[in-house]
Amino acid sequence: MKKLAAILLLLLFLFNLVGYRLWFNYVQQQSDIQLTASLDKHQYNDADLISIKVPLSMPYQTTQSNYERVDGEIKIDGKIYKYVKRRIVNGELELLCLPDHNKMRLQSAKNDFFKTTNDIATDNSSKKSDNGKTNVFKNLSSDYEQQVATFSLSAVAAVKAAYSSVIIFSLSSTPHTPPGQPPDAA
Q: Which domain of life is it from (predicted)?
């Protein structure tokens, strides 16, 4: 009976340590999947879209008159926006984005929950604590998600393949002795 109680308490401890983080990540992932599916089915109001224009400094950029569907997200001033459409016009990338209220609500609930469980005070007047300890807890409880940007360099590889057959040889500049008289055949 003691072993069973110890195992149950250990499982409860592990769930408190890791389980809530996994649960919040799972719920956020399901929310992203549902929003992406609704965006693919065009189940949104066009009036809710926000336009973001980013200048492109690439030469010989072609202009696109139609929008194309794109996935991704951006965080501006603490608000999360989901990419819906994009196009390139007059040397600018125009992104149409939709605010992701559900993900912002889940992120806020996650932050509030972990602040409460880690006993991190949100008000400086409500609880006096050592700043060093608070910073350690903030660093331990924070998430780190590495953002990976993928780039396609197929055009560079094609140019490299086309010009890799051109090989330049240079003759050495050391003096050579002229060939001498061949030996006599006996």
A: Bacteria
